[in-house]
Write a structure and sequence with these properties.
The complex is a heterodimer of chains A (222) and B (294).
Chain A: H1 6-9, E1 13-15, H2 19-36, E2 42-48, H3 49-58, H4 60-68, H5 85-88, E3 91-97, E4 105-112, E5 117-125, E6 128-134, E7 137-141, E8 146-153, H6 158-168, E9 173-180, E10 186-193, H7 199-206, E11 211-217
Helix pairs in contact in A: 2-4
Chain B: H1 8-18, H2 22-34, H3 38-60, H4 74-84, H5 91-108, E1 112-114, H6 124-136, H7 140-158, H8 165-168, H9 174-188, H10 193-205, H11 223-242, H12 251-264, H13 281-293
Classes of the chains: A alpha+beta (222), B mainly alpha (294).
Bound molecules: iron/sulfur cluster.
């Protein structure tokens, strides 16, 4: 069992009113921002179920937007985010939907710009979150660790190349999970790392053949 | 200190063996876990403490409504009353109740608060801790010790049940917050570890079965006033425990009872707003109004 930290209990310092619907929303936004990694021209937020129903009353919409703009959970600007200069630089819209196959507190971020990307995630309770899909590939990313996310063609040797590069740099891999559509087809992988990777390692990994997407997603600080 | 303390029984025996207080064990454990110095742990705790004080300070002078427009001016009303009438229970009662409303109203108007353990229950520990510390001139170091004690209590309970209304009802949010506050208060007032652990049991025993049925699904009704009530509840638990009044049922067994009660509680009463207060005639009207207005 994972040992619980004091700071699971007496933090985070956050803007209210709800850990799952406000702080969780910001954190999902922050993670998605890092996964997309580019400056989006347009963002569509699709809120599902409880997020759709009670989201506006809890400032979930504000939290999600704050997160994708890189504003952290304890920033009091979140309350008036829609009036903020940064918010007016991007084109965004919210959709409120029902889908009982999805988690009660669930969201899709659809980023458009030089690239299009859909990132989905759930707010799983007490401010903890989980990114569950990137462009429909299942992933599992919580922001607890610095992580490396890859989408690649499933073939022999790719993973050992990647882990080889990481290990020669002396970075420990804490956990790893892979998913694939079928043998030989596309697959995704999330690696949890004990420390952050530097730019040159990521560039090395990007140069491996048959890897389509490489993202280093930093650990959430609060 | 690598040993995980997962029950109150283990806590008491470890405190006894090592001749240490709860806060000492937990600051050591946290330093180990995060791989930082104890002083660094304490400065992180101080950050939370300072944010709690700031929320109280700001909340006391605001009457801004929440997004739903349902709540936000109760703290102002209470302070008005206190200006005209001394509260029945004296100055400390006055401060705790006003600080609790100040904090929880900051939360609902999207102000900055400290989830303790959650946002919906964020006012219980700070209102008691800050009010007592001001009244009794408690040093900042002692306040930090008390807040670590509160965190330790929450984290031991969390070993058995997730601190979320959706999992175990409000028992696991405001209920656990009251237990944390009771224990912190015993620590501040110089009680023993044993008294602290009994205060936790006494606070928890008297909230068993507390459901989570927020009106319109928002952390407002009944959450706002519940924070005030449970802040005072925690003082009762601490006073009894300091008198060496013991819970006949050991604290760990009370936590087990809380878990079981949470499991047996209908999902309709666990944050889904499908029953209880949330489905009263008036709640339905409020829900309509809120959904149409925002
Ligand atoms: S009633 Fe529910 S939402 Fe309100 S404080 Fe309690 S657990 Fe949280």
């Amino acid at each position: 069992m994972k040992q619980s930290s004091l700071f699971d209990i007496i933090s985070p310092i956050m803007v209210g009113p709800s850990s799952s619907h406000t702080a969780g929303a910001v954190r999902l936004g922050l993670l998605s921002r890092n996964i997309y990694g580019l400056t989006p021209k347009k963002i569509t937020f699709k809120l599902y179920n409880s997020y759709a129903l009670t989201g506006r009353g809890h400032g979930t919409d504000k939290g999600l937007l704050a997160g994708v703009l890189g504003i952290p959970v304890d920033d009091t600007r979140i309350k008036n985010i829609f009036d903020l200069h940064e918010a007016n630089e991007v084109n965004y819209q919210f959709e409120f939907l029902e889908d009982f196959n999805r988690h009660p507190n669930s969201v899709d971020f659809i980023f458009e710009g030089t690239q299009k990307m859909t990132v989905s995630g759930d707010s799983v309770g007490a401010g903890n979150v989980r990114i569950t899909n990137i462009n429909n590939f299942p992933v599992d990313l919580t922001g607890e660790y610095n992580s490396l996310v890859l989408i690649y063609k499933d073939r022999l040797g790719i993973l050992s190349k990647v882990s080889g590069i990481i290990q020669t740099e002396g970075v420990n891999i804490a956990a790893m999970n892979c998913e694939r559509i079928a043998k030989g087809e596309d697959a995704s992988m999330c690696m949890s790392l004990d420390c952050a990777l530097n730019y040159s390692i990521i560039e090395k990994i990007k140069r491996i053949d048959d890897i389509y997407l490489v993202r280093h997603v930093g650990k959430l600080e609060s | 200190m690598k040993k995980n303390i997962s029950t109150f029984n283990e806590l008491l025996s470890t405190c006894g063996q090592q001749n240490k207080r709860t806060y000492e064990l937990f600051q050591e454990k946290e330093a180990f876990l995060l791989d930082i110095e104890i002083e660094k742990v304490r400065s992180k705790v101080k950050k939370s403490l300072d944010a709690m004080k700031e929320a109280i300070h700001i909340g006391l002078s605001s009457n801004e409504k929440s997004i739903s427009k349902q709540c936000g001016d109760d703290c102002e009303k209470l302070q008005k009353r206190y200006k005209a009438n001394e509260p029945l229970f004296g100055k400390l009662f006055k401060k705790i109740t006003a600080y609790a409303l100040a904090t929880i109203e900051e939360n609902l108007r999207m102000g900055k608060i400290v989830a303790c353990p959650t946002a919906g229950s964020c006012a219980i520990v700070p209102s008691v801790l800050v009010a007592i510390s001001e009244e009794l001139n408690i040093s900042e170091d002692e306040q930090i010790n008390a807040l670590i004690t509160a965190g330790a209590i929450g984290s031991i309970v969390q070993n058995k049940v997730a601190l979320a209304g959706a999992i175990a009802g409000c028992q696991a949010e405001c209920g656990v917050a009251a237990a944390m506050s009771a224990g912190a208060l015993v620590q501040i007032l110089g009680g023993s570890e044993k008294q602290m652990v009994h205060a936790v049991a006494l606070a928890l025993k008297n909230i068993l079965g507390l459901t989570c049925d927020p009106v319109a699904g928002l952390v407002e009704i009944p959450c706002v006033k519940r924070n005030v009530f449970l802040a005072i509840h925690s003082v009762t638990a601490a006073e009894l425990a300091l008198a060496d009044i013991e819970s006949k049922i050991p604290t760990d067994e009370v936590v087990d009872a809380l878990c079981q009660t949470g499991q047996l509680m209908s999902p309709m009463l666990k944050e889904s707003s499908q029953a209880g207060l949330a489905k009263t005639k008036t709640a339905l009207k409020i829900e309509q109004r809120v959904l149409n207005n925002i």
